[in-house]
Design a protein that fits this description.
The chain is built from 13 helices and no strands.
């Protein structure tokens, strides 16, 4: 077989896998973008005002739980969350609450939660619970290790100007959706392409041997490690995760990847390093890796 015929055959196979994967997952991507834009336009201020209103409450350490849940409900990325958190800090918000809010916010948002529905109900539940617990654990760590001392350094951060300013609510939603599409579409399509290449060239039995339950501890460790360089966009990793789970990846390994991926995304790390400093930034990385490993092993134990 000549090179052109070989290339044409492989192209046909990859195109087939690409189209099948796109048909399976595109609806979740579109639904996630719509839900994300609706939350951003109509609920973002209410969520952040609700968090700001917690400052007057005497909930103590129990406020960490609510802060973590509000972080997941927030549609902002880390570069949008930090200026908001800086504003909360200047108005006297506890830093353990801020840690819980920021940690869960970087891990999950309503849009990514909808995307994750493509992975099945179990994966959605695991992602929601583990990300909430990670936010709570981060808040508790700051509470017990730093007490009332400041943990973050928000000097130089000011609230960012909102893009959602069009007086017409419908146009505001349309513009937000357009920005959402431009930001996520390239990564989503790249994820579908990588998934198609994976289906074509990676044998399922070999993959299961690395990341399946038969190799539990090593598989979770590998998934947590792979999440560091591979994660670029939440929507872009969903096609890959879907195929990995079908190929034998354990749910524990998937959960470890879903924590380390967004938590160590390069843009998020750049923002966090500024507000944490070197020593606390190193502690953050250690916390993320440890929590992801413990979570992955726990999920595998529960899922049997």
């Amino acid at each position: 077989m000549d090179w052109f015929s070989l290339f044409r055959r492989e192209f046909i196979y990859i195109r087939y896998y690409f189209i099948i994967q796109l048909q399976q997952i595109a609806v979740y991507w579109m639904l996630g973008m719509v839900i994300g834009s609706l939350v951003s336009v109509f609920a973002k201020d209410a969520i952040h005002n609700g968090f700001a209103g917690m400052k007057e409450k005497k909930w103590g350490v129990f406020g960490i739980v609510l802060a973590s849940l509000l972080g997941i409900a927030s549609p902002l990325c880390m570069y949008g969350t930090i200026p908001i958190a800086a504003s909360f800090s200047r108005h006297g918000m506890r830093h353990d609450w801020l840690a819980a809010f920021m940690m869960s916010s970087v891990l999950l948002n309503p849009q990514l939660l909808i995307y994750s529905m493509a992975l099945g109900g179990a994966a959605v539940a695991v992602r929601l619970i583990s990300c909430t617990l990670c936010g709570i654990a981060a808040g508790l760590a700051v509470y017990f290790l730093y007490g009332k001392k400041p943990f973050f350094d928000f000097s130089g951060f000011e609230p960012r100007a909102s893009h959602d300013t069009d007086p017409n609510l419908l146009m505001r939603l349309v513009k937000n959706l357009g920005r959402n599409i431009r930001a996520t579409a390239p990564w989503f399509l790249m994820g579908v392409l990588l998934s198609a290449l994976f289906q074509r060239y990676v044998p399922a039995d070999r993959f299961a041997a690395f990341f399946g339950k038969s190799n539990e501890g090593f598989g979770v460790l590998m998934a947590a490690t792979v999440g560091v360089p591979l994660y670029a966009c939440g929507g872009g990793t969903i096609p890959l995760l879907q195929q990995w789970l079908l190929s034998g990846m354990s749910m524990g390994s998937a959960s470890a990847f879903m924590i380390t991926g967004p938590a160590t995304k390069i843009t998020n790390l750049g923002a966090l390093k500024i507000v944490l400093g070197i020593r606390r930034f190193a502690g953050y990385l250690g916390f993320v890796m440890l929590f992801s490993l413990v979570t992955g092993l726990a999920v595998n134990a529960v899922c049997g």
